[in-house]
From TrEMBL:
Regions of compositional bias (Polar residues) in chain numbering: 1-10
Keyword entries, A-Z: DNA integration, DNA recombination, DNA-binding, Plasmid
InterPro entries membership: CB, DNA_brk_join_enz, Integrase-like_cat_sf, Integrase_catalytic, Integrase_recombinase_N, Phage_Integrase-like_Recomb
Domain Tyr recombinase, chain residue ranges per copy: 161-367
Protein name: Site-specific integrase
Species of the source: Sinorhizobium garamanticum
PROSITE patterns listed in its UniProt record: CB, TYR_RECOMBINASE
Domain Core-binding (CB) residues, every copy: 37-135
Lineage: Bacteria, Pseudomonadati, Pseudomonadota, Alphaproteobacteria, Hyphomicrobiales
Alphabetized Pfam families for the sequence: Phage_integrase (PF00589)
Stretches the record annotates as Disordered: 1-38
Length: 371
């Protein structure tokens, strides 16, 4: 195991790397590495523009939230290495094994709070990505990593804590808490209804633009048709279309809610859901952060008294942006394959994890076997 202290030198080009790839010699920094040579690398001048374009494609390979998570996890790992007088580069499976052990035992941070197995797996994936981008892959199959991780899973793995599903009756009550006479109220109604009816993730909701190719950071756009709303989304596995039909009444129709928001917010182009400013009288140009969706769901659920049998603290923990997605999966009385398509799941098993009140014993194999 290596035991030298982390270097504090700035980032530089390592001529030993193919093409002069940028190497982060300040591994505690938050800047993400790039496999593309910097402009000052040993490249012919006429390739500078191509290198700039390649760096743009590297950025586009993952979402902003993913890149932020990669940077945060790398910073967490390098800070732990610094405290232990270890170096994070080059990758040492024994060091990584000790790190995930510290995460599982609560010794990786000052608050002594153990990380969940899910968080540890995410941190390990982030380290693998960071090391790969630096041209020094981490061997996750090495016994110091693989065996330790298997032991952590066997010891600490627990069933996932699912968020509460927002059911139709809950959603209607939540909509009633929003002021239809304000821009913020109109926007929030549209977000709740589209998020529920489309089974959308919170990042997908705020990532929508009014039309195609209108912003660089958009994750999709909408098309309003006679029979409903077509949502075109860019996901991890490519593009997909989500069809949102019109509701049985204007008050619960996601299409009407979108049309009303667009009209009164006077949005002609760009991000669909934006910040309301000027004491609620003006709509700004900036796209909403996806955390606003989670805050909206929590706030509206509390105001509507959803799950009033629980304490306010427990209720706040149970609702998030995913509650809308789980609500559609749990309440749509249609063939499961249609729900799977709407949610964009690759398997029916994943869709079933979102169904909070499905009939689990509809198929009784005990009786079917003759018992």
């Amino acid at each position: 195991m290596s035991g030298s202290a982390t270097s504090s030198e700035p980032q530089k080009v390592d001529p030993s790397q193919p093409g002069g790839v940028t190497v982060d010699t300040n591994p505690g920094g938050t800047a993400l590495p790039s496999p593309v040579p910097e402009a000052n690398a040993a490249l012919p001048a006429h390739l500078d523009r191509l290198a700039d374009r390649a760096r743009g494609y590297v950025e586009a390979a993952s979402s902003a939230n993913t890149r932020k998570a990669y940077a945060s996890d790398w910073k967490h790992f390098t800070a732990w290495c610094r405290r232990q007088n270890l170096t994070p580069l080059p990758p040492d499976p024994q060091v990584v094994g000790l790190y995930i052990t510290a995460c599982a035992s609560g010794a990786a941070t000052a608050d002594r709070k153990p990380n969940s197995v899910t968080t540890i797996e995410r941190r390990l994936s982030s380290l693998s990505w960071n090391y790969a981008q630096r041209g020094t892959p981490l061997d996750r199959k090495d016994r110091h990593v693989a065996t330790v991780l298997a032991g952590i899973r066997n010891t600490h793995a627990a069933p996932p804590r699912q968020k509460e599903a927002v059911l139709p009756e809950d959603l209607i009550a939540m909509l009633e808490t929003l002021d239809r006479g304000t821009l913020r109220g109109l926007r929030d109604r549209a977000m709740l209804l589209v998020g529920f009816a489309g089974g959308l993730r919170r990042s997908e909701i705020v990532g929508l633009d009014l039309g195609r190719d209108q912003t660089e950071d958009g994750r999709g756009w909408i098309e309003i048709l006679d029979k409903g709303l077509l949502v075109i989304l860019r996901g991890k596995t490519g593009w997909r279309e989500v069809e949102i039909g019109r509701g049985s009444s204007d008050t619960t129709c996601p299409v009407v809610a979108i049309e009303t928001w667009i009209k009164f917010a006077r949005i002609a182009k760009g991000p669909l859901f934006r910040r309301v400013r000027g004491q609620g009288k003006d709509v700004g140009p900036d796209r909403l952060n996806d955390r606003e969706v989670a805050r909206l769901v929590k706030k509206a659920a509390l105001a509507a008294g959803v799950r009033g049998d629980l304490s306010e603290g427990d209720r706040a923990e149970k609702f998030s942006g995913h509650s809308l997605r789980a609500g559609l999966a749990s309440s749509a009385e249609v063939d499961e394959r249609y729900v799977q398509k709407q949610l964009g799941h690759a398997s029916a098993e994943m869709t079933r994890k979102y169904q909070r009140r499905r009939d689990r014993f509809r198929v009784n194999l005990t009786k079917a076997s003759g018992l």
